[in-house]
Write a structure and sequence with these properties.
Strand order of the largest sheet: 4-3-5
Structural class: mainly alpha
Oligomer: single chain
Number of strands: 5
Shape: elongated
Distance between the termini: 100 Å
Strand content: under 5%
Radius of gyration: 31 Å
Order of helices and strands: HEEHHHHHHHHHHHHHHHHHHHEEE
Amino acid sequence: MIADYFPLLSALVALLLGLAAGKAWERYKLHEGRWIDRRKARQSPHYIQGLNFLVANQLDHAIEELSQAARVDEEAVEIHMILGNLYREKGHVGRAIQIHQQILQRPRISKLEHTYALLCLGLDFTRGGFVDRAHEAFGEVLRLDPSNEHALLQLQKLYEDQNQWSEAYRVRRELAREDEPEQRTRRHLQIQAFLENELGMQALARHDLPAARKHFEAAIEQDAEVAPAYLNLGDVKRDAGDMPGAVEIWERLVASMPARAHLVADRLGDAYTAAGRADAFEHLFRRIAADHPQDWRARLALARHMLRAGRPEDALQMVLAALTINPHALLVHQSAWDILLALHLDKPSVERYVTHSRDAVFYRDPHICLRCRYRSKELLWRCPHCHEWNSFVEDRLAPARPSEDTDA
């Protein structure tokens, strides 16, 4: 009986020996006349210290330590990939390209390593401004891995940077299909809505008003909080002579995004005044101010409206309420100066204004990207640094302080 199983047993033993030899060959290699444990490249002080420097954003030190770790095992692909990425971050794009191309030329790398090296190479080309070669690299990644999210995202950004909004929209649709059904659906729809808005802007540039209107409406349908689509659709309706339709769109923006109501304040103020309904503006923005006690922009809009209506005294009280909430906003101070010029300089009000602003640091509505911390004086819908959509929020130098003036 034992003799019957002997060939099978021999085959199993040979298989185990082969696996053991393979693992040993994978782990050890002959380097300069001695056997090196490949794992020591990851366990060496240089590798660990390099990662520590990388986490601390000390890129020069990270490059130095990881380079020494790579010398322990020149075939440690992941270390070389990290080094290439670090060189790219330092602006040494040529060096990064060289490292990642060398990885791709190795005879024995896995499909995953090959795909990731191509992705890194695409990022190198993007950073260096080699757009066509970046397209080719990301396309090759997608040939190997059609659902690679990182390559799709990078392709979308490339198309956006070239204002190829239709292609960017197509890639975003593909990303949404590849994602899990209930994962990040809201974010996909929001980005698609912003891309629809850009397509509408392109149609406007071609003077194709029906197409522009269709894209703006599609943007709002996909995401009710894409503010620029409301602005643009309302403008299209107004320019076409449909002022009631324009007002309805702008009022929908206010209802959907009260914090963005200031974006349509001038538009609504002009429309209400032209229709003999100036009181409608004040009623609307007083309600916003009451519902949102820290909304200084709604109070500033009211102050400007009151000043245009010949009510500088009321305007001053409203701008002082805005100043209490955000004493650093230059726009508030500029409105206060305009109002004081229209008044006979009521002394208590002037003293109150000076008290609030004496130690203030003026700045013009800075906005900050939540993803990369890029700062902008203007509210941008897409970050020029990290290319993220709708990532800007208002940044303040100090928290707002509650005050009796806020209720004005």
